[in-house]
Design a protein that fits this description.
Length: 279
């Protein structure tokens, strides 16, 4: 008796020892959307919500071996990338992904921390721009990362659609510029898919228990939708709702320490799980 092959998702990212962000957040999102998750670990971190204490980056050849092992056996329909740390790791990942044109790729260009600190050296940024971003189905920069990729400031809300369009033309992929860093009563993300710009907005949640890992979670949820065959705009909408509900349901797991919640899922018209709204 033949059994159907279920789609699965792959995360290529760093491990968060606190379980809030990175690979751990990605796996939670994949599982919430009903998908098996595979992992390629690009960095080990010693961290908690208060900060990162240490980072260990494996050799690029070991990252490549992980990718070969996953692609050899698993039916990966979509993937997302997160922290890639060094130019060597980016080069290794790009070389393997270039050989997989049918796999949908959500590239989260982890370049700038919320604090504004740079997370990639200049040679790694160059490798990201030249080798990896042109392979993407969609890239998901936050506002500081979008500015870094543009080499120009995004000063007003009206600048965001133009920034997304400019980046889409530069890297030949769809672009979702995340607006969580902007001021205002709503968190607005702008998607440019090569034809039009669309805005996805959710109200801001006052005094949430946790927002740690929201960027990772959003990219992973988009990848989950794409793995299910959901159109990109619908995958972004579902992912945005999922993250909003996860923030609403965040809870304490230690002293002054919280984690995103796990929203219950309903079935969407596309046949994938979508976060049920609370309140």
């Amino acid at each position: 008796m033949r059994h159907p092959v279920q789609p699965c998702c792959l995360t290529i990212a760093g491990s968060d020892s606190g379980g809030n962000a990175g690979v751990q957040a990605d796996l939670r999102a994949f599982h919430a959307f009903g998908l098996h998750g595979c992992t390629v670990i690009t960095a080990l971190t010693a961290q908690n919500p208060r900060g990162v204490r240490a980072v260990h980056v494996p050799p690029p050849a070991f990252v490549a071996e992980q990718l070969d092992a996953v692609f050899e056996a698993y039916g990966v329909k979509a993937l997302k990338t997160g922290m890639l740390a060094t130019a060597g790791v980016i080069e290794a990942v790009a070389a393997k992904l270039a050989a997989r044109p049918r796999v949908k790729k959500v590239i989260d260009p982890v370049m700038v921390a919320t604090s504004g600190a740079k997370l990639l050296a200049d040679d790694a940024v160059a490798a990201l721009k030249e080798r990896l971003l042109p392979l993407a189905t969609v890239i998901t920069p936050n506002l500081p990362e979008a500015e870094a990729l543009l080499g120009d400031a995004i000063e007003t809300a009206a600048d965001v659609p133009l920034a997304a369009k400019t980046l889409a033309r530069k890297f030949r992929c769809a672009v979702l510029v995340k607006g969580g860093h902007a001021a205002g009563g709503a968190a607005e993300d702008v998607l440019y898919d090569g034809r039009r710009a669309r805005t996805f907005a959710c109200p801001r949640i006052a005094r949430p228990v946790s927002t740690h890992g929201t960027g990772c979670t959003l990219a992973a949820a988009i990848a989950a939708g794409l793995a299910r065959g959901v159109p990109l705009a619908a995958a972004v909408e579902d992912a945005k709702i999922y993250v909003y509900e996860a923030i609403k349901l965040s809870y304490h797991i230690g002293q002054n320490c919280g984690v995103l919640g796990m929203p219950k899922m309903r079935r969407s018209k596309y046949g994938q799980g979508t976060a049920a709204r609370h309140g």
